[in-house]
Write a structure and sequence with these properties.
Shape: rod-shaped
Order of helices and strands: H
Number of strands: 0
Number of helices: 1
Largest sheet: none
Distance between the termini: 92 Å
Keywords: Membrane, Transmembrane, Transmembrane helix
Helix content: over 70%
Radius of gyration: 28 Å
C-alpha cells in the first residue's frame, strides 16, 4: 500500500470497558424512547375515548 502516511488509523478508539458502558447507555436511551412512545399512545387513546364519551353524553342528553 502506498500513500503518504498522513493519517494514523486505530483499530479500537476506546477501551472495551468504555464501549460496554456506551452500549449500555444506548440501550437505556432506546428503552426510554420505547416506553415514552407507549405512554404517548395510551394518552392519545385516553383523550380520544374521553372525547367520544363526552360527545355521546352531549348527544344523548334530553333537550328541554
Amino acid at each position: 500500500m502506498g500513500g503518504c502516511d498522513y493519517f494514523l488509523w486505530y483499530k479500537d478508539r476506546h477501551p472495551p470497558q468504555a464501549n460496554r458502558v456506551m452500549w449500555g447507555l444506548l440501550k437505556k436511551v432506546n428503552a426510554f424512547h420505547e416506553k415514552l412512545k407507549r405512554v404517548r399512545n395510551i394518552f392519545i387513546v385516553g383523550v380520544v375515548a374521553t372525547g367520544l364519551l363526552m360527545f355521546g353524553i352531549w348527544k344523548l342528553k334530553p333537550s328541554c
